[in-house]
Write a structure and sequence with these properties.
With 281 residues, the protein is mainly α. The chain contains 11 helices and no strands. Helix 4 runs antiparallel to helix 9. 57% of the residues are buried.
Length: 281
């Protein structure tokens, strides 16, 4: 049991690292080009990667029920990423990303509590500490004149999309990994392409936006790690640990883009570390 718990925790934390890097890449690309173009390209590269892995591992198509859950998860995730990229294009990462993280992490916790009951006391404390840490990280302030309320709204919409993604993907049955994720990615790609066409911006050229393609590869890798994690640990634990990705994104924007990080945000990052220790006891 201890080995299974440790395996699931490591996989969920690895997913957080991948998603943090994906959000940094996608957010950076969204500041240079239309966020819907970035969304489409990221879904495209992720779809290609997951299809290639499904073919290499020779996975068969999942049952119809699992395929349906995967497709719904892909649509929910695409909505979340679209709102996130839009928010990152107009607001500081330290405001938008953690807001999405808090809401996205809270939804699976409430879902699992209703379905499977609450966790032991120390793990409950870990989940609460994680949510507090993510909230503290979100207490940044945008630059003068920025529309913080709009950034918070987009972060909230992103969180709803991510929370739905966690819950829906957790319903995919065991046995296959890459095939259902390829279906989820395909659903997200079709939704993104439709949004681009309806917006009149035109489909982007893949070769012109390598950072957007990188975001898709990192995001797809994180999804694989998350789906593997929920095979070993409860959905709520995996979702909260994977939702620590805002800390990675904020640190990357701080280190590479010199974005300001307030003292309370550093305190939030420390709380996230304490939360990991409590959850994994």
């Amino acid at each position: 049991m201890a080995v299974a718990q440790a395996t699931g925790v490591i996989l969920a934390l690895a997913a957080a690292v991948m998603w943090g890097g994906a959000d940094f890449s996608g957010g950076l690309a969204s500041r240079r080009t239309n966020y819907l173009a970035v969304l489409t390209l990221s879904r495209l590269s992720g779809f290609v990667l997951l299809c290639a892995m499904a073919m290499v591992t020779r996975e068969s198509l999942p049952p119809l029920t699992s395929a349906g859950w995967a497709a719904a998860a892909g649509l929910s995730g695409a909505l979340g990423i679209a709102a996130l990229y839009k928010g990152l294009a107009i607001e500081r990462a330290a405001l938008v990303v953690p807001t999405a993280g808090v809401i996205g992490a809270a939804m699976p916790v409430l879902f699992e509590a209703a379905i499977h009951g609450v966790l032991p006391l120390w793990q409950q404390a870990g989940l609460v500490t994680a949510l507090l840490g993510i909230w503290l990280v979100s207490q940044g302030h945008g630059p003068a004149g920025s529309d913080s309320s709009r950034g918070l709204l987009l972060g909230g919409v992103a969180g709803l999309g991510f929370g739905g993604f966690f819950i829906l993907l957790g319903q995919v049955g065991p046995g296959v990994v890459f095939a259902p994720l390829a279906i989820a990615s395909c659903a997200g790609l079709l939704a993104a392409a439709l949004a681009v066409v309806l917006s009149g911006t035109g489909l982007p050229a893949p070769t012109g936006h390598p950072v957007a393609l990188l975001a898709g590869v990192l995001d797809a890798t994180g999804v694989v790690l998350f789906l593997l994690a929920v095979r070993w640990i409860r959905l709520d634990i995996a979702a909260v640990l994977a939702s620590l990705y805002p800390a990675i994104t904020v640190l990357l924007f701080w280190a590479l883009m010199q974005e300001f990080v307030a003292r309370r945000q550093w305190l939030g990052l420390a709380a996230c570390v304490v939360a990991i220790a409590l959850i994994t006891v």
